[in-house]
Amino acid sequence: MPPPTKAERHFAQALTAQGFAGTVSIAPGDRVVMATDNSIYQLLPGAVVYPRDEADLALIARLLDQPEFHGVTVRPRGGGTGTNGQSLGGGITVDCSRHMTRILDIDVAARRVRVQPGVIKDQLNAALRPHGLFFAPELSTSSRATIGGMISTDACGQGSCAYGKTSTHVLSLRAALIGGEVIQTQRAPHVPGTGRSGAVLETLDTLSRDQAELIAQRFPKLNRTLTGYDLAHIRQGDSIDPAAVICGSEGTLALISEATLNLLPIPAATALLLVFYPDFQAALRDAREMASLGATSVETIDSRVLGLAREEPGFAAVAHLFPVADAAGVNIVEFTGDDAGALTDHVTTLRDRLAAGPGRLAVTQTQGADVARVWGLRKASVGLLGRARGSKRPLPFVEDCAVPPERLEPFIAGFRAILDREGLDYGMFGHVDAGVLHVRPALDLTDPAQEVLIRRITDEVVALVHQHGGLLWGEHGKGVRSEYVPEVFGPLYPALQQIKAAFDPRNQLNPGKIATPDDSALWQIDGVPTRGQMDRQVPEGLRADHASAFACNGNGACFNRDAGDVMCPSYKATGDRRHSPKGRASLMREWLRQGGPDGAADPDFEADVKQAMDGCLSCAACTTQCPIRVDVPKLRAGFLQSYHARHRRPLRHYALDQLEALLPYAARLPRLANLMTQGPGAALMHRIGLTALPALPLHRPPLDQLRDLETLDPARDVVLVPDAFTRFFEPQLVADLAEVLDRLGHRLRVAPYRPSGKARQVLGRVRGAAAQARAQADLLRRIDATGTRMVQIEPAITACYKTDYPEGTPRPLSPQELLATLVNDTVQAPPMRVRLLPHCSERVQGAAGHTGWREVFARFGITLHIPATGCCGMAGMWGHETVNRATSETIFAQSWQDATAPATGPEPDIILATGYSCRCQSAKVANRALQHPISLLRQLMAAG
Fold first, then answer.
1. Is-contact 798 778, C-beta < 8 A?
2. d(CA 765, CA 768)
3. 754 Cβ contact list (under 8 Å, min separation 6)
4. Higher pLDDT, 146 or 314
C-alpha cells in the first residue's frame, strides 16, 4: 500500500499545528476504508481528516492556497454511498460525517432548518416529525445519506416529480472557498466585490447574462435536468445565486459547512396501489397512465428485485399485498392527501378502474403502517441486487439514465437489447414517473475479460440515451463518468471551466470530476482502478473462503445511525467507519490482498485491522440486516485465528476460552467462584482484562436431569438444551419454565450440559469451537431422533446453532415458539403495562422474533409494547472485557437507556428482556432489574 506523499503528510501536520479541532489521520486503516464507495472503483487517499466545524474547513481551504501546498488535492465526502466514485481519489479526504452532525436551528413558522453537512437525512426528518414537517427529497439511502452529500450530488429519488431535487429546497449555503474565505450564498443582484467570492460572483453574473440564449437552447427539458454547474438556474431576472452551481458540483468548487433548507408539511394521509404485470415492459408502458392518476410518485421493480425482497425478514408483514408470485414487474403508486377518508375513497375507485383494465395481473391497495413497510422494501432494492449469487454482481455504472417518461419503455427495450447481446443478467428498479430506471448489469470485474465491457456498454448506452433525448446521469451524479461532460454540455463546457477556475484556479478540489480550470484531462471510466483489479490479486480460494467480504458493494446500509436499528452497534457508538461491516469488509479484503494469512501484511495496517475486529461485538446483525449479508463475525473469527497463530493472546482470552467448560465445576463451589470474580477478586479479574462479571447463585432449585434418552415421553416431555448463562447463572429461570410447562400438562427434562462453542468461535478459536459444536450437535440429533421437542432459552445460543453448526443440525425451539403452541386457554390477568425488549438476535428476525411472545401474552389479555432498540452493548462476553467496557455502556445509553427508564403513567411498568446479557447490562448500568418473559408467565399462571 503506497504511503502518503511528502506533501500530504506535511499538510496533515500543518493542520494539527495550526489548531485543527477535528481529527487528522494518515493511518492505513482509515485510508483503506475511504478508498471505496458504492461504485466499482477503488482509490486510496493519502490522508483522512474529520473537521469539527466551519473553522476547520476554512483552515483546510486556507492551507490549500499556500504555495507549499499548491500540489495538494482534497476530496470532500459525505455518506460515502456514491455510485460513480464522486468522492474517491488521492489526496486528502475531508469527511464531515463524523463530527459536523448538528441540527443548528429549526424555524417551524418559516418552515426552514439550518444544519451542518454531516446530518443524516433520516435523522433530520426524525427531528422534524414532531413539528409536522419534513425535508422532501426521498432517497433509497436516506438512512445514511448526509445533507452535504445530497447537496453535492443534487440528489433526488422517489417523488421527484412532486418534490423536485435537493437544490429545489436549498435556501442558502455557507461554504469555504480556496484561500479560506467563507461565502454565504443568497439570491441577489450582483454587486462587485473583492477576494475569491468577488471573482466567483463576477464570473457567474457574466456567464449567466452573456450565455443566456445558449443555456436555454442546450439544457434538456426534463424533470431530472442537468445537475452540477447548473447554468440554467444561476440567474432569475437581475439576481444570481451561486448555490445553483455549488449544488451538484461534487465537491469540485467549495467545502460546504452549513445549509439552510426549505421544509414541507407532512401529508396527513398516504396510500399505495401495487399493480402487477406479466412482463416488465408492460409495467413501463403502463407508467404513463399511472402518472396521469395524480400520484405523488410511481416506482417500479422487476421480478429479480421482487424475488430478493421476498427473502427479507420484513416481507412477511406485507406478503398479503404481493399476491402474484410470478409477476415480472410491479408498479408502486403513491397518493397523498390531507383527508384520510377521502383519500381511501379516491384510491379505491382507482384500484377498481385499474383492475378492470387489460394487461394487469392484480391490483392491491393499502394505507397506514404497510406504506412504510412497502417503501422499506423498495429502498432496499439498491442493496438487494448486490446479493446475487455467484461471482457476477449487478453493478452501478450506467444505472441512472433519464429520458422523457414517454420514451422510457422504448429506451429500456433498447437498453435490454444491448445487455442481451452481451449475454448479461441484470436487475431493474426506479422512478418511472420521472423517466429514470436503474439498470444494473451483472459482471465479475475480477475477470479482465469482463472488465472491458464497462467501456463498451457505457458508450452504447450514451448513444442510446442521446437518441431518446435524455441524459446519462439523471440522479447519481457524474464522478468518474465526467469524461462525457464536454460532449453533453457542448459549447457551454468552456463556461463550466470558467466557473471552475473562479472557484478553484489550481484544480485542487476533487480534480478530474465535471470540469477542469484548464486543458487538463477529466477522468475516464476505464482509466481509474477498480475494486475488481485489486481483488483479483487475492488467490481465488481465499476469495471464496471470505466471500462476504468481497461481496460487500459499499451500499452503506451499515452506516445507519438510528439507535433503534440493530445494525451496527460499534459503528453507532464510535462514528468510526472502520467499526462498521463495510469498514471491516474493506479492511479484510486489503489484509488478504497483502497476504495477511501468511504474515505478509504491513504490521501497522494489520494492527488497524485487529483494532477494528476487536471492536466487533459479534452480534451478527450484519448477517441478516446487511442487504449483502456481510458476515463480520465469521470474518472476525477467521482473522483472529490467523492473527493469534502468530501473536500471543491476552490472558483474558484463555479465561474466556474455558468459560463454558469450567462453569459446571464453578457452580459446585459458588462461594469460592464468586470470591474470584466479586469484591477483592474483581481487582484480579480487572488485571487480566475482565470486568462487570456476574455472580453465581448460592442456592439452586432442583431440576429434572435427563440421564437416559430412553426415559423420554415425546407426548409429555420437553427437553431443555441448557446454555451456560441460564443453566449456571439463572437456574431459577429454568425452574420457572419447568413450572409453566407443568401447569400446561408437560414435563421439562434438562439435557446434559455441553459447551456450545460460542465463546471459542467469538475468540477465533475456530477449530476448538468446531469440536465443541460437533459434540453438541451429536446430542441434539440423538434427542431429536426420539421425537421429543427441544427448547433452548438463551437467544444468542439458539442463533449460534443456526449459524455456526453443521448444516442439518436440529434446532431447538425458542421458548416463545414452544409456548405459542401450548398456551391455548385465555386467562384475564390484572391490568398491567408490559414492555418487551428482545435480544438483538431476535430483533434481526423482524416480527418473527417476537410474534410468539405477543401471542402468548395476548391470551392473558396483555398487549406487549416493544420499543425499537438495538444492541444492549454486552453481546455475551464482549462487554465483560475491560477494554470494551466504556463503549459497551455508550451503546447501552444510545439504545437501551430510554427503553429501560421507569414508566411515567399511573401503573407500574413491567420490563421484560429475553437476553441474559441484556438483563445483566440493565442491572449494571441502569440499576433496573428486568425479568425474562418466562418468569412473568409463571407468576400469571400461579395467580390464575
1. no
2. 5
3. 772, 775, 776, 779
4. 146
Nearest-angstrom CA–CA distance, 11 and 69: 7
Residue in 136, 138, 145, 123 with CA at minimum distance from that of residue 169: 136
Helix (H) or strand (E) holding 188: strand 188-189
Output Rg (C-alpha) for the chain, integer angstroms: 29
What letter represents residue 858's amino acid? A
Q: Cell digits for 766?
A: 475456530
Q: What angle, 0 to 180 degrees and rounded to 10, lies between the N-to-C axes of helices 851-858 and 933-943?
A: 10
pLDDT bracket for residue 264 (50, 70, 90): very high
H or E stretch including 218?
helix 212-218
- Whether residue 700 contacts residue 668, with contact meaning beta carbons closer than 8 Å, is answered with no
Q: How many residues are present in the chain?
A: 944
H or E stretch at 797: helix 795-803
Residue spans of the domains in the chain: they are 1-262, 269-446, 537-647, 655-813, 821-943
Q: Residues 596, 606: contact at Cβ < 8 Å? A: yes
**CA dihedral sign of residues 529, 609, 541, 646:** positive
**What is the sign of the dihedral through the CA atoms of 525, 527, 531 and 533?**
positive
Give CATH superfamily name and number for 269-446.
FAD-linked oxidases, C-terminal domain (3.40.462.10)
- According to DSSP, residue 282 is labeled H
Give the C-alpha separation, 154 to 796, whole Å. 43
* DSSP conformational letter for 663: H
SS3 481: helix
Q: What is the pLDDT of residues 842-858, one digit of tens each?
A: 988 877 788 999 999 99
Long-range contacts of 535-543 (CB under 8 A, 24+ apart): 535/445, 535/446, 535/589, 535/593, 536/446, 536/447, 536/448, 537/593, 538/589, 538/592, 538/593, 542/592, 542/597, 543/446, 543/592
Contacts of 210 (CB under 8 A, 6+ apart): none
The string of pLDDT tens digits covering residues 284-317 is: 998 878 878 889 999 999 998 888 888 887 888 8
How far, rounded to the nearest angstrom, does the alpha carbon of residue 479 sit from its chain's CA centroid? 22
Sequence-ordered list of residues with C-beta below 8 angstroms from that of 766, at least 6 positions apart, any chain: 637, 638, 641, 760
The mean predicted confidence, pLDDT, of the chain is 94
Give the list of residues 6+ apart from residue 599 with CB closer than 8 angstroms, or none: 646
Three-class DSSP labels, 43-67? CCCCEEEECCCHHHHHHHHHHHCCH
Cell of 748: 421439562
Sheet strands side by side (includes 747-750): 747-750, 717-720, 789-791
Q: Which of 519, 590, 639 lies closest to 32 in space, CA to CA?
A: 590
* Model confidence, pTM: 0.94
Cross-sheet strand order for the sheet of 235-236: 188-189, 239-240, 235-236
Say what the pLDDT of residue 893 is: 96
- Residue 263 to residue 170: CA distance in whole angstroms: 10
DSSP annotation of 4 reads P
Beta-carbon count within 10 A of 176 CB: 25
Identify the helix (H) or strand (E) that includes residue 549.
Answer: helix 547-551
pLDDT tens-digit series, residues 893-921: 999 999 999 877 766 789 999 999 999 99
Instruction: Check whether 932 has a pLDDT greater than 80.
Output: yes
Query: What confidence tens digit (pLDDT) does each residue in 360-391 have?
Result: 999 999 998 899 999 888 887 777 777 777 78
* CATH number for the domain whose boundaries are 537-647: 1.10.1060
Could you count the other beta carbons within 10 Å of the beta carbon of residue 796? Answer: 26
Q: Which fold has domain 821-943?
A: Rossmann fold (3.40.50)
Say how far apart CA 90 and CA 97 lie, in whole Å: 19
Fold of the CATH domain 1-262: 3.30.465
Contacts of 501 (CB under 8 A, 6+ apart): 203, 517, 518
Above 70 in pLDDT, residue 226?
no
Q: Residue 751 corresponds to which cell in the numbers above?
A: 439435557
